[in-house]
Amino acid sequence: MAYILSEKLLFIFSTTFHIRDVKQYITKRLMHFINTANYRIFKPRKKVIIMNNKKIVAYIDKVLNQMPSDWLNLTTHRLDIYDEALAKTQFLDQFEMLFSNDNADLSSLKELPTAFDYIRLGHPLSSILEWYLAKKLTLLPEAVISFSSQSVPALSILRKNLLDKKNTQILYIGEIPDIFNGDILREVYNYTFDLVKIDDIANIPSFDGSTIFISQQDIIQDITLHDTIDFYISINEQYGSLLVVNGEQNNSYISEIQHVRRRETIAMTPINSLAVLKNIVGQSVDVKNNTRSQHKASVISSIATITGAETDALVGSSGLSIQYAIMMGLVQDALEHHKGKDIKFVVPPNCYGGTNDQARRVAACINNVEVVDLPVDGGNDMVQGIDTVLDRIAQEDAIAYIIAEIPTNPRVEVPDLIQLKEVLSKSRKTITGTNAIDPVFILDQTFCPNVNFLGEGAVLSSVRAISYASGSKFPSGGKCTAGYCVGNEKATSLIHKVESHLLLCDNEATDLQYQYLAEQLPSMNQRIADAYVNTREFVNFIQEVLPAAKINFVSEALAEQGFTPSVFSLDLPTKGNTDQEKEAYKRVLNHKLIDLMIQKIPLESKYCVSYGQLKGCYWTIPATSTQGTTKEGDKDYIARVALSPSMDLDLHKKVFTEFVDSVYI
User: Fold this and answer.
1) How many structural domains comprise the chain?
2) Which tens digit of pLDDT belongs to each residue from 48-73?
3) pTM here?
4) Domain co-membership, 516 together with 533
5) Please, which residues have CB within 8 angstroms of residue 164's CB and are 6 or more apart in sequence?
6) Which DSSP helix (H) or strand (E) runs through 583?
7) In whole angstroms, what is the distance from residue 19 CA to residue 98 CA?
8) Tens-place pLDDT, residues 503-521
9) What are the backbone dihedrals phi and psi of residue 144, each rounded to the nearest 5 degrees, phi first?
10) CATH number of the domain that 441 lies in?
11) CB 481 within 8 A of CB 513
12) For 148, phi and psi rounded to 5 degrees?
């Protein structure tokens, strides 16, 4: 009935308005909204109108010649043109309208809304690549999902089938990629599947469950679908992979696969997406970077100098890629050395949403893994909380892996590090009186990557500890998403496990990411010092002109110890008769302040979740950005401000004074 109705509406629209290709476009949108509110359902493939491929290729060619530079260089989304509820559709909806009008003007392309979320989940170039391949295969764009990793597409399907208790067969011709380690996937990740070598894609064995076909190809976008294949994965060592969801019966996988890409890996990078698109339109493509080994050696050396750590650094495609490798490496170590014992990941409930969500996703897949909440700031003492949690876990004879940020986010608090060391070193007993297993402290030091926690004689050198940082912040100056981790001497064996999972998931940093880190890491500590000077001056100024505001920032004493972040949180004074009225008014003030800063200083002040950029000032509200998947009661509706070493601080002071005068006088 819905489809008949949509066909009648299509006839009216297409005969009345004569919009180019209007039937194809409205068919997509009508069926999209008729069938579902969350964009998981396709209309039947046979009803999709096949577009002129030459026309599409010609349009993409124009777009590549005119595209904004941000499409290739911007690593984080601008919140002022980002609507999270529409993130997976809004960009392509408007892009398709430009396509219908053959409009590839730079000014029009610049006006397109943010695509997806950071460049982990997707970005303009990966979205256009997916759109092109979907057009070619007469599917909707949601059915094509690009990855920087070659192996994670298959893992994303295995994860859903694990939770759904559904069988999976993975088919391949020739050789299965070396990174695909079936034993580890079964024993550690808890995935079940049959790995089957076939001679011809036309001769696929019948199977009660999902059929995945993996193809290694030089031309990654050269895909032909078969009705007997549920998921087609085309992989390329240089570019990554393209996953195609085939058939209406598999629609429910789409959002699950996208969420794996958001949390455990990244989309095909902008530079690689551009290379594939250039190949499609016949433009010349640069040859593979031959300086990877040189840049990697430089990065490893720089991180060793900065951290003083005992192990070589591992560098992943993003901070969450590294964190996922850490978690799975520690799970494997526990399964091998402490078989049968429960594993507890201790995580602050209000920490970065990706960390929180990922920990719970790991726990959902492995029976003996559980997440334990650890309140750490806003009146909660991290050290006392860890002590209490570790006592309880010891009584249960379980294994404790603690993930914590120092300084905390967003309230920028630093615990007493000597007390922290003592609590982590404390000998504990199980309920039967035997010695409990010592914990592992996993430190997210993204806010202060310059602090030596793990080196010889450092505060955490005597306990099992791993530290990691998001390279999208200070390490790369905001130029890439890569992240890295190191371990102290006591964690050497654990780091080897982490490395195996980083490689299994094909999540090591890309050539360009290593290049950016090699360029930016040598100056990182100086940039951190310079940005801190600006931040301290701005914080002091706000305290003078708006003394009623509550500012969360490190003390002068902590700064002397080396904790010199360039981010602070601002709790504005509010008014109202009830707590609800006060909270509502404060939320309005947050947006008013940020909007004024962007309006008055558009070249420097941005509404963005980033931190550690080379220039400018970034504003966000954690509750609506970095804490997106955090439980509502744990969210922080305050302003978070991140300053850089290069910005017009006097102008920011002037505009902040205007805000104070307009609101409080």
Assistant:
1) 3
2) 445 578 999 999 999 999 999 989 98
3) 0.89
4) no
5) none
6) helix 579-600
7) 12
8) 999 999 999 999 999 999 9
9) -115, 125
10) 3.40.640.10
11) yes
12) -75, -30
